[in-house]
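Board notes (copied after class):
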Amino acid sequence: MKVIAVLGSRNPQGQTAKAVGALANGVKGAGGECEQIFLPQMKIERCRQCDDNGWGICRTQGKCVIEDDFASLVSKINDADAVVFATPVYFGDLSESIRAFLDRLRRTCMHEAGKQKIAGKKAIGICVAGGGGGGAPSCSVSMERVLGTCGFDLLDMVPVRRQNLEMKVNILETIGKWLATNTSK
């Protein structure tokens, strides 16, 4: 089982990384592999809405014209058995880096060529809120909507608050083990 974890966090020691690390430990403990990718370390531009109608070749060809790290990350996702999308919660919503990536991915998935290797792919979403933690549920709804539009088979959405992170670490490790042993392409 090959899992790609896409993190919208820039802090490899932060709460989001800790949550994903627990899930990755579960995957690895069950014999799988998990690569973690931190979006802020990549060059991912926001959508340019290329044409006057707000679209571009994303709608007609299922790919994006912007030459950055987007296409290589989509290729990694296509080659993986499952994907984990994790974000810190800002203002009750997705981080800017994961929003930029998912906005472009969603557009390419509007065409069959872009959706081909994504439709039905197993996915897990994790939204980690600091502060009071109240934004985790609304962020989870936002992520669920985008991943559903892309066609992922969303197996679980895990809202996490800094106040319950230690408890959720155990749950996320269990989810990782389950993901590695009970799902297939």
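Comment from the instructor: The mean pLDDT is 95. Strands lie at 2-7, 33-38, 82-88, 122-129, 153-161.
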